[in-house]
Amino acid sequence: MKMFREIMCCVLLMSGLIQISFAQKEASNWYFGNNAGLNFNAAGTEALLDGQLQTGEGCATISNRQGGLLFYTDGITVWDRNHNITPNGTGLLGSPSSTQSAIIVPKPNNANIYYIFTAAAGGGDDGLNYSEVNMALNDGNGDITPLKNIQLLTPVPEKVTAIDHQNGNDYWVVSHEWETNRFFSYLVSNSGVSTTPVISAVGSVHGPDFRHALGYMKISPNGEKLALAKWNSDSDVELFDFDTATGVVSNPIELSGVFFDNPADTPPTGPYGLEFSPNSKVLYVSDWGSTLFQSYRVHQFDITQPTAADILASDTILYEVDFLIAALQLGIDGKLYVSVPGFSSLDVIENPNELGVNANYVVGGVDLGGRFPAAGLPPFIQSFFDVGIEFEGTCAGVETKFSINTNESIDSVAWDFGDGNTSTEISPEHIYLNPGTYDVTLNINIPGGTESFDERIIIYDTPIVTTVGDYVQCDDISGDGVEVFDLSTKTAEVLNGQSNALFDVEYFLSEEDALTTTNPLPLNFTNTESPQTIYALISNVENGSCNAVVAFDLRVNAIPVANPVTPLVLCDNEIPDGSESIELSQFDSVVLGGQSQDEFNVSYHLNPTDANNGANPMISPYQNISNPQTIYARIENSFNSQCFDTTPITIEISGQIIAFQPDDISSCDESGGDGIGQFNLVAQDEQIINNQTGNFNISYHLSQISADTGLDPLPAFFQNETNPQTIYARIEPAGNPFCYDTTSFEIAVVPLPDMVEDETATVCIGERLRLEADFGFDSYLWSTGETTRSIFVEEPGIYTVNIGSLSQTTPSVTCFVTKTFTVDASSEATILDIEIQDWTESNNEITVFVSGEGAYEYALDNGFYQDSNTFTGLLPNDYTVFVRDKNGCGVVSEDVFLLYYPKFFTPNGDSYNPTWQIANAALEPDLEVSIYDRYGKLITQFGSNSIGWDGTYNGQKMPTSDYWFVVKRPKTGATYTGHFTLKR
């Protein structure tokens, strides 16, 4: 059975969120060797390639409770989570050639503080030191504080290890004195690092040979055993008992005779790395051979055996090679990792709790992604790897989660939670209803036997959170919104009856600060903004992690100013009794004087006492009971009724005045149908006064309230905003704005008749054209003076007609729209000229030139009409050109002939091309053709009706050759020349 240990494992309770304060994930990230790294996660292991550390041996890494990297070191330099050297993170007194150059230990119950313990190389004078890291520094990335290189002991061998105190809250850091047999155990507690060690003089002397300083020292995960390797010495490996309650090392056992231990070997030989199994029952040792043997081994020992001889007899060589095997280190996955310098991987012992081959030594079991380890791997607090009962949560009323840290195959389990409740689940959850100390037992049935574990758990009171009201103060006369708040006055409300001896209350500016107890506020706190949220942390004085956070606001409410109100003089109504109904809200805007209605409330009271106390507010409308009468306005902060001011208001009832009802005003919609028009409001003045004598001020307003207060008068010429729209008129005697009457009338914009479209028409010269206005209107007036819906015109020009429509809402108003007719003249075209371009086979053109007042279009041979007067791409032929007016005022035409000549002819008697003549010549009777030989001699002449030339001259056949021609067109006076070929 394991010893009972008082465990103080912290749980943070905040708004239903539970966070585990201690878990194995602090060892989730490793950085070591030559920029090598390893991450342990739910999916397994993953090589890290971002490390900056290069070391031959010693190194250390620490992560947070969730497995996020915090920082790492080689004992000299400290790198933060972003792999940058921290500003003060150099010059630590470890050494990259020290076996255990550094180990990192958190400060209990403080999420920000860690200590780096360093051991110098080879028993050097720098000895054992510690430096403090504050994670709140360096923008939350951590840095070394002024507590740097604080020496605890000198000199020491290259050995330092750490383990949980039995109380589950503190830690022991253990080293050894050089050239003595004394162990030094230093306590790390809430108070920091104790410089008064527990000293145990036991075992062999370390030194004076500096090589004796080499080799690892480890404490078993359950804290019960301590082992160390002494390289190149007669003692080889020593095994001790360790007491986690007292820090005492005792009962030495020497394990010798099975290692390479010849002090004369060069390089020296012997054990170097060592590690316990997760269940603390098996010890592993790496053994270095000499140059002569070139042999390196991994040993396994069963340390449950009763004597040293029995333990040595259990020695099993799991692996032996001719290259270096160095550090051994447990991982949080329960496996044991072996550093093999020179290879980009680590060997893995898969089942380190198992003896012999069942331990399953895997060569190259973890790939390092091209990075190489050196001799060292990062050590951790050995408790991280403890087997047996693990639990999360030690606050009453909150789930405590239990689990089993073992690699054994489990058949069944039996839990006893120590409060009368049990479970057979592998990982049960249990709620302790009351605080106290509970002894938890676990029996595990495994193949071949049973295992039993015990843990003593202290369950602490959990604070109860209730709603806390805002802390509100009135601003001082400075009006800067800044005041001093005595936060201690909120403590009783925060505790809500809970004992201040059991719970402590602190105040913070953020929930994160509260959860990490960082930057607590002074009790006399000056706010920096309003509202400003404050977070109150209620924590158990014995276990600060049993806590809760509640938020409330600090508010500085403005003190309002009650602006003075000018005495109100009202006109008496039809009954001259000196009493009127008064709408009190009319004073609101004056009292506020621009202060926000959302921030301040205004009320009215009959006397100053009620106004100061906010009592008996008057109901509006109010009927005055005396004339004159003084009432009192109170303005107060909407969020704090204690922030207020008052002012008196005098009300007087004067004579009578009447605002007579004027006629409504209508106008036609002249602005495109949007219902907006311009109105002369002052034209209503005469009707409103209606022969009353005296001098009056008349103003016009958009609302009754505006008319009653006389605020926001409208300009004399007003453009309506809605249609129709009510206008309110206020009349008051000149010099007495408090005696007034109001009336109202409507302004309306009468819509115009439906919009009509202008038209364009064409009149043929000599004919009449009918112009017709749209149907369905009430009146028509043409620019010709006619009043019929349609008229006839003979001349081109612009004609307009005003189309009128009576208003359906205002019968006296007729609104007009104007329609415009544009009349153009048109006539039959006159063909002035026709130009032709012929003498081609298919690319001839005809262009027609005309005169006339119309718009014309053109066609050939009654084909499609086109706007262009030119026709292209024509074959030689006869054509008729047609021209018509687009408005239908007539069509004219003229014939056109396109000529062409053959390029050759063959008068050889075969009836093909026997003669040569101009194509289409017969269409031009006056055509004259002359033919010449190549020397210019006239051969023949003929006209349009001739069959042409037959290729002879004076009855003789002319030879094959080119001949020239000249064509005269008497009709146009044009002459054409060219040449062709006679072929025989």
TrEMBL record:
Superkingdom as given in the UniProt entry: Bacteria
The protein's name: T9SS type B sorting domain-containing protein
Annotated ranges, domain PKD: 415-449
Organism: Winogradskyella pelagia
Endpoints of the signal sequence: 1-23
Pfam families attached to this UniProt entry: CHU_C (PF13585), PKD_4 (PF18911)
The UniProt record lists the keyword Signal: yes
This protein's record includes keyword Signal: yes
Keywords for this protein: Signal
InterPro entries: Ig-like_fold, PKD/Chitinase_dom, PKD_dom, PKD_dom_sf, Quino_amine_DH_bsu, T9SS_type_B, WD40/YVTN_repeat-like_dom_sf
